[in-house]
């Protein structure tokens, strides 16, 4: 089944394609040590001779490094760029930047602000464009999250993931991705911080085909009850620093503590997309405790993105 031209939303992948990406990511992870030892150019060959532009308009650690290593290990050449270095920062339209980059490179990975900005770039580009984060979605993170969940529990059907906190881009992609693979997703959020209503509606449409359920509540205990994974994110993301104090007061009941985690299944895992603020959205006892899989989750960004790039550029 051919992959979509771009990955602007996790919804661009069918359920079959998403499961295929997860299977490939698992194989790439298992093979990585042997490949690195046997192949001096670190390449699996999927991107041999190809260049991938990494356009970052927001600071990043995991996304930037994992994509740069992913392209290198697939045999390609990563080309890191910032908007300050391009005409994009001096008035060139986003679509024109996409058109020009398409004449030089073979794919564009973009970490930016508004989803519309990403879509304008993709409209101008004639090569695959990958959403490495927008204010609306974080699809590559969601693939790594599913990979980590499946490593812990083996399957998705009959399982539930609870996301507690801001109904943000991470929650949006989790809702869509979970619904596609049959994983029920519950979002527990403070008043005024619900996930996008359109995303929730779309997730429920997808869930109707897989037997998953999608629930949104302001009760964190109800969200977590019996869940197989408990997930949270920072209370104020990049660009929301001015709201940090107001959010901190409102989000306290949604902090993932040992007491809240105790409402989940006995073998529940804790997930966080990082960076984490210990003592704010999660206690140190949870994120550094035995249920935490956050560093496996961070590592899986590499394997998930390699699988996505290999599929998109096949």
Automatic annotation (TrEMBL):
Reaction equations catalysed: carbamoyl phosphate + L-ornithine = L-citrulline + phosphate + H(+)
Predominant subcellular localization, coarse grouping: cytoplasm
Keyword hit for Transferase: yes
Gene Ontology CC terms: cytoplasm
Molecular function per GO: amino acid binding; ornithine carbamoyltransferase activity
Organism field: Egicoccus halophilus
Keyword Acetylation applies: no
Alphabetized Pfam families for the sequence: OTCace, OTCace_N
Gene behind this protein: argF
GO biological process: citrulline biosynthetic process; L-arginine biosynthetic process via ornithine
Compartmental location: Cytoplasm
Domain Aspartate/ornithine carbamoyltransferase carbamoyl-P binding: from-to ranges: 6-151
Coiled coil: none
Protein name from the UniProt record: Ornithine carbamoyltransferase
Domain Aspartate/ornithine carbamoyltransferase Asp/Orn-binding: 158-310
InterPro entries recorded: Asp/Orn_carbamoyltranf_P-bd, Asp/Orn_carbamoylTrfase, Asp/Orn_carbamoylTrfase_sf, Asp_carbamoyltransf_Asp/Orn-bd, Orn/put_carbamltrans, OTCase_ArgI
UniProt record similarity statement: Belongs to the aspartate/ornithine carbamoyltransferase superfamily. OTCase family.
Entry EC number(s): 2.1.3.3
Binding site for L-ornithine: 169, 233, 237-238
Pathway note: Amino-acid biosynthesis; L-arginine biosynthesis; L-arginine from L-ornithine and carbamoyl phosphate: step 1/3
UniProt keyword terms in alphabetical order: Cytoplasm, Transferase
Chain positions recorded as carbamoyl phosphate binding sites: 60-63, 87, 111, 138-141, 273-274, 301
């Amino acid at each position: 089944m051919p992959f979509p031209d771009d990955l602007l939303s996790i919804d661009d992948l069918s359920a079959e394609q998403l499961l295929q990406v997860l299977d490939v990511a698992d194989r790439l992870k298992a093979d990585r040590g042997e490949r690195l030892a046997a192949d001096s150019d670190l390449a699996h060959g999927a991107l041999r001779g190809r260049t991938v532009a990494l356009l970052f308009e927001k600071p990043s650690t995991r996304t930037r490094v994992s994509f740069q290593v992913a392209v290198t290990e697939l045999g390609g050449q990563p080309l890191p760029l910032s908007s300050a270095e391009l005409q994009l920062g001096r008035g060139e339209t986003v679509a024109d930047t996409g058109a020009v980059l398409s004449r030089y490179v073979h794919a564009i990975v973009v970490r930016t602000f508004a989803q519309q900005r990403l879509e304008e770039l993709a409209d101008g580009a004639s090569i695959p464009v990958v959403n490495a984060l927008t204010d609306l979605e974080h699809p590559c993170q969601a693939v790594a999250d599913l990979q980590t969940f499946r490593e812990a529990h083996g399957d998705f059907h009959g399982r539930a993931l609870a996301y507690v906190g801001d109904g943000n881009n991470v929650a949006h992609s989790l809702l869509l991705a979970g619904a596609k693979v049959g994983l029920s997703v519950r979002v527990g959020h403070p008043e005024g911080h619900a996930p996008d209503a359109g995303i929730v509606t779309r997730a429920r449409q997808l869930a109707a085909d897989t037997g998953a359920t999608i629930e949104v509540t302001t009760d964190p205990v109800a969200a977590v009850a019996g869940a197989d994974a408990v997930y949270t994110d920072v209370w104020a993301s990049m660009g929301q620093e001015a709201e940090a104090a107001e959010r901190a007061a409102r989000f306290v009941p949604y902090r993932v503590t040992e007491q809240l985690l105790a409402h989940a299944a006995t073998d529940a895992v804790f997930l966080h997309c990082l960076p984490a603020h210990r003592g704010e959205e999660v206690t140190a006892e949870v994120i550094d405790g035995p249920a935490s899989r956050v560093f496996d989750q961070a590592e899986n960004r590499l394997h998930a993105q390699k699988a996505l790039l290999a599929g998109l550029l096949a």
